Amino acid sequence: MYKTIIRTVFRLIVSPKAAWQSIAGREENHQEFLNGFLYPVFGVVALASFVGGLWFVPDGSLQSALKQTIVNTVTVFGGFYLSAYVLNELAPRLNLVKSLLDWQRFAGYASIVVYLLFVILAFAPEFVIARLLVFYTVYIVFAGADAFWDIPDGSTMNFTVTASSLLILAPLSIYGILGLLIR
């Protein structure tokens, strides 16, 4: 299972178009997607947050590690569900089909850079320049637009901007709110 996850993540980063074609051609039900890809990725985010909060941040302690784990885990879960739900609701405006399960699948795969940044920043919180990598999500969404969805001609850019904005801003908003409430 982890070999497949690592291969999928690697392909989404290195060759998004080929990865999206492979993902679109897969016969996986929603539970297979959640249990075989998304939840293990969220588990890695949680584990990295705990270890990073315990040993890799200044003044690391069990309390800060648990806080960081809670904030990051809720952020990735909430960002995933919020962005998928909003994209599903916006689907008719984008001339696409409303299907929450398909939008969740798309959001889960397209947000892989966001999830990886949570892992990287858990171990190197001072590495501020890494946060700019989040904009690679735009290219991953653009590559998945035609492979995963049947985007009408001329709507690809509108779809890419809308979906990318939601996939980046939903977790960022939740992270900001939780950061204010918990710290």
Describe the structure.
- The chain is mainly α.
- Helix content is 78%, strand content 0%.
- It is built from eight helices and no strands.
- It has helices spanning 2-14, 16-25, 30-56, 62-90, 100-110, 112-123, 136-148, 156-182.
- Helix 2 packs across helix 7.
- The longest helix is centred in the middle third of the chain and has 29 residues, at 62-90.
- It is globular and about 55 Å long.
Quick tags:
single chain; mainly alpha; 8 helices
Shape category: globular
Strand composition percent: under 5%
Reported for the largest beta sheet, the result is:
none
Low confidence ranges: none
Order of helices and strands: HHHHHHHH
Total number of beta strands: 0
Helix content: over 70%
How many helices? The count is 8
Structure class: mainly alpha
Spatial separation of the terminal alpha carbons? 36 Å
CA radius of gyration is 16 Å
Mean pLDDT metric: 90
Brief overview:
By secondary structure, the protein is mainly α. The chain contains eight helices and no strands.
SSE map:
Layout: H1 2-14, H2 16-25, H3 30-56, H4 62-90, H5 100-110, H6 112-123, H7 136-148, H8 156-182
Helix pairs in contact: 1-2, 2-7, 3-4, 3-5, 3-6, 4-5, 4-8, 7-8
